[in-house]
Inverse folding.
């Protein structure tokens, strides 16, 4: 009995040593592993594919290397569902042992996945979602954003409405984390009267028929309508807004609705009424920075379409990670060094230089963009004004970093 | 002004109701007559929409595209019946659910391969893109009037078919007691194929009608199928009349909930809570109704007789 037990123990120790020996070469940093969680199925795959195309393009542009190390990208599909996004994040953390997690279109997916990534000591970099919680009390030293905080863009739009003398507003937005932030954002800065507000069903079976809400908006006698409908709901909304003839009487102001993904579809459906509509954004394909020119022209050449803001943020995310890896000379165990580099935002962003606030959200400009046609007749957006210069989100003060 | 809004919302509810009817009619026939649970009914709705998306620019006329697409969906319905569902009538409901769920995955995958993941719009001709002006300044988009008219016409045609024709008599006989109908010499197999394809064509038509308002998307039918099931459960499985009335009720409840619930809830809740609670509650309203009906009338409002 005694002998047997000893045999077991030594066998066990042997196994552990062997495992450690086997694992040793894999844990040494011979490549940079990046997990990219986005939506690659459901109709929202249009967004995910645009992000993936941009991330792949950025990979080509850096020659597949950071500080001499090979870069490996693992894409995962969240299926537009928070629980799946969390599972995929867990898989990337535990099974693939990635060094960085990025992507994340949806605020509710990011909020669900946050803990899995951060508790495992990974860097989490949002390439789109900017929920208020992560900017405020849930901010984390290893979380960064290459996009914006949800409230900022609608806040800029509220300012535009004030400048244009709009007296009253009707708000429509989907009923989820980002939708609530967007409505809160425009309400924070808009000084006129809110005539009404509809929060519509969102998710996989989102509401797409807005006849009842449009009838209410019309009856409310409002000066303008504000909507936030990313993805397929945006196309449906604008179509119905025009079919109801409201484009002749009530101007429409949007955030994240009229973009490089929806405009070609509007063009295909010959919905000329959308041209001239105004939106706010931190970026536009015509923004005049060297990195943006390189990005937009290469994307156009490769895919034959304009990149969306989702694509721009994803393109930035890879260069952002590269700046961190190169700052520590490829020593991926030096988390503090990489974090310090990231906080400087010392990389060529398509939006031009910007800085990070204490909560690791960008302090950046916001522009007013107009839907228009380019020299080749393609529908796109053009910057017509700067609304905010170096704007910081309002939740930064709740962040303890 | 208040009642102008109310009438507009009534029309919106009617439009949603007839659309749901088009989808639910086929479902209730197939479920009621063949005792076949067809989860892939929503896929036929989607295929109809995609056929129309492709045909519309080719034929250059929306009504013509709809007509051809309806025929194509009818043929697709025949194919699905012959290849898949025919072999499942004798199996229990679980097998049917599994097989038709597989069909959903198949159709979604096929659409992804053929048309891609992005949504596909249908451009409406000028004469359908305008607005219909009723007395007292009530305006409704022409296309929504067209949906109401199409839906009501199909409903009338279906009720005529079921109540006045020999084929309808066979359908009703099949719904009441299919073994007896078979024993009396009715070719049940052929009847089933026909009913299945008819249901497919109506579902496809519903898909074509909604696409110019939203767009054709992968999985568009899966989302609305749940509501269609609610409709046929409320109406009584197998009953066309029940499906029609239940579809209108569900359409009205949905639209009215979205229109008036938040205002109503603000009477006794603060603004913030009302804004959060009312979308959730209006989304639940039809399910609450269904639960109530299942409690008081487990077989629905208008169950077919002699089952």
């Amino acid at each position: 009995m005694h002998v047997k037990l000893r045999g077991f123990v030594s066998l066990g120790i042997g196994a552990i040593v062997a495992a450690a020996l086997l694992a040793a070469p894999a844990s040494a940093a011979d490549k940079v592993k990046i997990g990219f969680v986005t939506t690659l199925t459901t109709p929202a795959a249009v967004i995910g594919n645009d992000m993936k195309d941009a991330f792949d393009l950025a990979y080509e542009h850096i020659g597949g290397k950071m500080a001499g190390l090979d870069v490996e990208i693992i894409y995962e599909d969240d299926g537009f569902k928070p629980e799946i996004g969390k599972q995929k994040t867990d898989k990337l953390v535990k099974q693939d042992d990635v060094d960085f997690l990025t992507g994340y279109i949806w605020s509710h997916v990011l909020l669900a996945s946050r803990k899995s990534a951060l508790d495992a000591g990974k860097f989490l970099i949002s390439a789109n979602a900017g929920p208020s919680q992560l900017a405020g009390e849930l901010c984390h030293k290893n979380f960064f954003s290459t996009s914006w905080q949800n409230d900022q863009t609608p806040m800029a739009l509220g300012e535009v409405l004030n400048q244009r003398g709009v007296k009253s507003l009707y708000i429509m937005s989907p009923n989820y984390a980002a939708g609530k932030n967007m409505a809160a954002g425009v309400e924070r800065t808009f000084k006129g009267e809110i005539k009404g507000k509809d929060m519509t069903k969102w998710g996989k079976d989102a509401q797409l028929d807005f006849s009842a809400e449009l009838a209410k908006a019309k009856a409310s006698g409002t000066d303008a309508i504000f909507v936030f409908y990313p993805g397929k709901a945006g196309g449906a909304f604008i179509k119905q807004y025009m079919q109801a003839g409201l484009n002749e009487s009530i101007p429409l102001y949007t955030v994240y609705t009229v973009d490089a993904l929806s405009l070609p579809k509007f063009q295909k459906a010959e919905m000329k009424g959308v041209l001239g509509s105004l939106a706010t954004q931190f970026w536009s394909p015509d923004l005049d920075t060297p990195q943006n020119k390189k990005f937009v022209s290469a994307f156009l050449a490769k895919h034959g379409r304009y990149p969306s803001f989702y694509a721009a943020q994803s393109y930035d995310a890879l260069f952002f990670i590269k700046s961190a890896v190169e700052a520590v000379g490829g020593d991926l165990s030096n988390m503090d060094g990489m974090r310090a580099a990231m906080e400087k935002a010392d990389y060529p962003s398509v939006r031009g230089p910007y800085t990070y606030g204490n909560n690791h959200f960008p302090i950046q400009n916001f522009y007013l963009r107009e839907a228009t046609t380019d020299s080749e007749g393609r529908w796109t957006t053009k910057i017509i004004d700067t609304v905010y210069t170096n704007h910081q989100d309002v939740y930064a003060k709740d962040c303890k970093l | 002004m208040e009642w102008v809004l109310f009438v507009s919302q009534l029309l919106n509810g009617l439009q949603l109701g007839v659309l749901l009817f088009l989808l639910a009619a086929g479902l209730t026939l197939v479920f009621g007559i063949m005792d076949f649970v067809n989860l892939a009914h929503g896929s036929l709705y989607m295929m109809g929409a995609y056929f129309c998306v492709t045909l519309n620019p080719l034929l250059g006329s929306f009504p013509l595209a709809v007509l051809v697409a309806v025929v194509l969906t009818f043929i697709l319905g025949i194919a699905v019946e012959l290849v898949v569902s025919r072999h499942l009538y004798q199996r229990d409901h679980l097998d049917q659910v599994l097989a038709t769920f597989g069909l959903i995955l198949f159709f979604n995958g096929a659409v992804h391969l053929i048309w891609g993941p992005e949504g596909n719009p249908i451009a409406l001709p000028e004469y359908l893109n305008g607005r219909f002006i009723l007395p007292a300044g009530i305006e409704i988009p022409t296309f929504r009037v067209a949906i109401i008219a199409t839906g009501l016409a199909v409903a009338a045609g279906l009720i005529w078919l079921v109540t006045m024709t020999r084929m309808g008599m066979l359908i009703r006989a099949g719904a009441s007691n299919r073994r007896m109908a078979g024993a009396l010499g009715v070719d049940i197999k052929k009847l089933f194929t026909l009913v299945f394809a008819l249901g497919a064509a109506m579902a496809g038509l519903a898909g074509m009608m909604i696409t110019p308002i939203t767009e054709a998307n992968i999985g568009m039918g899966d989302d609305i199928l749940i509501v269609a099931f609610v409709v046929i459960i409320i109406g009584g499985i197998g009953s066309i009349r029940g499906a029609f009335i239940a579809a209108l009720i569900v359409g009205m409840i949905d639209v009215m909930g979205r229109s008036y619930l938040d205002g109503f809830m603000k009477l006794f809740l603060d603004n913030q809570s009302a804004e959060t609670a009312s979308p959730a509650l209006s989304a639940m309203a039809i399910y609450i109704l269904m639960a109530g009906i299942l409690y008081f009338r487990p077989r629905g409002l208008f169950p077919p007789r002699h089952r």
Chain A is about 40% helix and 20% strand. Residues 281 and 367 of chain A are 5 Å apart (CA to CA). Residues 17-28 of chain A have pLDDT under 50 and may be disordered.
